[in-house]
Amino acid sequence: MSKEKIICWRGTDGDIQPVKCVCDDKFGYPNYCKDENGKEEKMYENTHFLKKEDAWNSIVRSVKAGVSLSGSWVKRVMDELEKAQSESAKSVLEYHKVKANMDNPFSGDM
Description:
This protein has 1 helix and 5 strands, in the order E-E-E-E-E-H. By secondary structure, it is an alpha+beta fold.
């Protein structure tokens, strides 16, 4: 007599929709399941679910977190760029002032 296989759903980073998996033995960590391509993977409480809706919830949380982190990173980099541009403009202005100063014996070599 064969055991009935357990259907579960993976929903984790990189998944754009729940991935159907089959468990031969028991559901949940530290057991293994296979995805539809036959790839075996360890199940974790935060990546594998008995309900497809729970896998969707995990995927949605993951992509929202990714967007938030990326947005924060872009903002930080844009702030750094703004500071670098300001410092660069200040340096160029100082350069031209020093070059234009007639008391500067090196102004012609600049």
